[in-house]
Write a structure and sequence with these properties.
Elements (H helix, E strand, L loop, with lengths): L8 E4 L8 E8 L3 H8 L9 E6 L5 E10 L9 E8 L2 H14 L6 E2 L4 H8 L5 H12 L3 H11 L2 H24 L5 H7 L2 H27 L1 E7 L5 H9 L17 E7 L2 E7 L9 H15 L3 E7 L6 H13 L6 E6 L6 H4 L33 E2 L8 H12 L13 H22 L5 H19 L5 H9 L6
Parallel strand pairs: 1-6, 7-9, 7-10, 10-11, 11-12
Antiparallel strand pairs: 1-2, 2-5, 3-4, 4-5, 8-9
Helix pairs in contact: 4-5, 6-8, 6-15, 8-14, 14-15
The structure holds ligand FFO, guanosine-5'-triphosphate (GTP) and potassium ion.
Potassium ion binds next to loops.
Protein name: tRNA modification GTPase MnmE
Subcellular location: Cytoplasm
Subunit structure: Homodimer. Heterotetramer of two MnmE and two MnmG subunits.
Amino acid sequence: MLARLDQAIAAIATAPGRGAVGIVRVSARDVRPIIDAVCARDLPPRQAVYLPFRAADGSAIDQGLAIHFPAPHSYTGEDVLELQAHGGLVVLQLLLARCLEAGASIHLRVAEPGEFTQRAFLNGKLDLAQAEAIADLIDASTEAAARSATRSLAGEFSREVHALRDALVDLRMLVEATLDFPEEEIDFLQKADAQGQLARLQANVARVMQRAHQGALLREGLHVVIAGQPNAGKSSLLNALAGAELAIVTPIAGTTRDVVRQTIQIEGVPLHVVDTAGLREGAEEVEQIGIERAWGQIENADAVIFLHDLTRAEEAAYQSADAAIAAKLPEDVPVVDVWNKADAVGAGVRFAHHQPTNNSDHPSRRLAVSAANPSDAPSAPASLTLSARTGEGLDALRARLLEIAGWQAAPEGVFIARERHLHALRRVDAHLMEAAAQLARQAQALDLLAEELRLAQNALSEITGEFSADDLLGVIFSRFCIGK
Ligand SMILES: Nc1nc2c(c(=O)[nH]1)N(C=O)[C@@H](CNc1ccc(C(=O)N[C@@H](CCC(=O)O)C(=O)O)cc1)CN2
Ligand SMILES: Nc1nc2c(ncn2[C@@H]2O[C@H](COP(=O)(O)OP(=O)(O)OP(=O)(O)O)[C@@H](O)[C@H]2O)c(=O)[nH]1
Ligand SMILES: [K+]
């Protein structure tokens, strides 16, 4: 990958299709051959110049703005030429083809997805967490996610990681120095309060992990499945949460057969809500396929809303069917028991109902509350009562879902993060725990302590990419959109 850094690349940087303006971007060690051929004049550095873009025969492909960003002061850190044309697939493809032709002498080729940003990373314009934040900014599905991606892009997350690294380096220096004077070791470390330093570092890792967990939540969202017997009002609930008529609602049990999905947001947290076929025994063939799909969704959910019909709560057959479903719900997915159709019953009934399924306290699998805050596990209320028809009680359900997700808007503002970052932070945490255990022992094995600190630092550096495998970089950048 590093070897290809000297190749010249070009791409359409704007989204494919009709647009007011479209951009073709070239990054190379030297873009002069393309400026000469396409712009046919000199360009002042970093200034937009309005001119005709020339075809090989000298005719104008379009009139637009050309900007030359001389290396290293560009997005990629290389020599960059931007041609800002009228948006339109044909115009931009002609312009790109013209650049490739004019750049033949410098072996100009079409860029791979993420290749411009990859160069920015390799040239030190961005670290890996910032590069990822660019992709997350482009893909953000809510305003909160976009804002937090901007924070990471501006380096807020990276600065936190660097502060942790600096503290870790200080501690390592202390331990390494002590290794050289074995007879004084206990004294030396005690005087420097190595234990205190390590404890503060662990607390800071926990704090960063908590913030990163919030950021990962904004990026990934929560996968919520609405499940329950036919006619409980699952489609009605999806529609009520989404504020739109997405799923078909009828009084006929077994209406929904296929899975209906919708992404909604609660306080900026994306919730991918899935309405499923009603779960029952003895369904006909098509409905049965829907039911199997519903179970597939349930297995992979971050949370399940187990919906019950309050108007039927007293029926023995209804209760036993619910109990049969409850028995089949996976152990490791949190379940919220929700009684629907509150509007259709008297106030007396509303508060006199039923046992929740017994596994509402399981921590979410995919977005498990980080080790930072084990005590933050949701304190599950027994069950919720609402009306999908009137909207009453929906806010409590929203709040409960955020609680399951482990969402607490951080006071300092959330920065976007990925599961990859959380994974690295968990490893840092684990190595620091080992280090603390070593330090607390009477007969300290200082070399083991030093090794744990070194491993913790490596894990930390993976976040910002100072210590990352090439194939990891390849995977990260290949997921960018073309032209980025
Ligand atoms: N037209 C256009 N708009 C765009 C981009 C672009 O490439 N072209 N970007 C692309 O994604 C983003 C902006 N990113 C950029 C990042 C750095 C530099 C740049 O010239 N950096 C120089 C100078 C910095 C300075 O003057 O402070 C440098 O880093 O040395 C340009 C764009 C969003 N908008
Ligand atoms: N009174 C009242 N009726 C509701 C409420 N929610 C849903 N219903 C009615 O219950 C019936 C079934 O609603 P759906 O939303 O289609 O139920 P479902 O669980 O998706 O049904 P299936 O597709 O069979 O699994 C419809 O007649 C709805 O109008 C509610 O909050 N109050
Ligand atoms: K339905």
